Write a sequence for this structure.
């Protein structure tokens, strides 16, 4: 694929460039939806012409958290629920980096829910992919925040008595400026959505339905799916919050009843990102923070000397 990279060169990139030479092959189970995310992310990076050095993939803990081991770029495998604060710090320190944060539904909607809500509210410029398999996969199938009511698992043997969390509605209401849902069974749509999300300046949230054939037999494969942007049965204006909100609510109900709706729901192209707001008020440089530690000859300066000078 051909595209212009960050320094304006026309480069040809192939999705296989993001396959690490040294890492082991993915250890995900056969048929796992996580393979679909990896494939879509590689396709999106190639289409955007991003070199591995221009990207950072930050992950949480879970089967989903292994994503950055299998994708060749800068990577940071953090702790459970904490991918977003690390991703935010990296983006603030190096505004030129393309930052993708990723993790599971337990990771992002459970233990990391607070970070999710506030990253959306603050509109941090990054793409957040949540692998939503509606259970805790790595720890062998416990009920997660998105497990449907009545879902039986080892932790809820008589069926979950809780209503599932509504990830799209939560994201929109918290303030995300791009919200979409896709599914591993729809790799072309998934790739296109990741391209759009990365190109978007602000917090883009993708709820990515990833089947777990090992522990979540109930969820099946998320097929057949309906693309709300292509279907004649749906008429959505993605720039209109009310329209997005209504269809998200319907989508979340439909999933619990077995109908899989996917697509782009909301895209606000006008709202400045947190990084832009900080730059506008002069609180954030446009160059990477690390470059401040170079002297005129482009040699590293000792950072504490600079801090001492600053406080004299
Ligand atoms: C603080 C903390 N609590 C609990 C765990 C155990 N743990 C590891 S992965 C996981 C759940 C993973 O589920 P999810 O985030 O949905 O990812 P999946 O494996 O389904 O991709 C849990 C509870 C942990 N590693 N750290
Ligand atoms: S346990 Fe489920 S989510 Fe984890 S690798 Fe296997 S199929 Fe995928
Ligand atoms: Mg999960």
């Amino acid at each position: 694929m051909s595209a212009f990279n960050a320094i304006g060169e026309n480069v040809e990139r192939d999705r296989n460039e993001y396959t690490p030479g040294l890492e082991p092959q993915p250890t995900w189970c056969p048929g796992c939806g996580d393979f679909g995310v990896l494939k879509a992310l590689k396709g999106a990076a190639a289409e955007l012409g991003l070199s591995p050095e221009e990207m950072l993939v930050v992950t949480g803990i879970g089967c989903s958290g292994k994503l950055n081991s299998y994708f060749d770029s800068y990577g940071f495998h953090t702790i459970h629920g904490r991918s977003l604060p690390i991703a935010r710090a990296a983006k603030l320190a190096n505004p030129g980096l393309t930052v993708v944060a990723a993790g599971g539904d337990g990771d992002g909607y459970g233990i990391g829910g607070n970070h999710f809500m506030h990253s959306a509210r603050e509109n941090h410029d990054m793409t957040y992919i949540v692998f939503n398999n509606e259970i805790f996969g790595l720890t062998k199938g416990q009920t997660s925040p998105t497990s449907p009511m009545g879902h039986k698992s080892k932790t809820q043997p008589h069926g979950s008595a809780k209503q599932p969390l509504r990830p799209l509605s939560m994201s929109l209401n918290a303030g995300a400026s791009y919200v979409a849902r896709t599914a591993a069974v729809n790799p072309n749509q998934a790739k296109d959505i990741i391209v759009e999300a990365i190109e978007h300046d602000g917090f883009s949230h993708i709820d990515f339905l990833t089947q777990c054939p090992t522990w979540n037999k109930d969820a099946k494969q998320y097929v057949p799916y309906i693309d709300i942007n292509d279907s004649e049965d749906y008429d959505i204006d993605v720039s209109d919050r009310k329209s997005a909100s209504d269809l998200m609510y319907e989508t979340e109900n439909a999933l619990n009843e077995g109908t899989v709706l996917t697509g782009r729901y909301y895209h606000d192209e006008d709202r400045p990102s947190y990084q832009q707001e900080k730059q506008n008020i002069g609180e954030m440089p446009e160059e990477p923070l690390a470059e401040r530690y170079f002297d005129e000859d482009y040699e590293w300066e000792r950072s504490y000397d600079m801090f001492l000078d600053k406080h004299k």
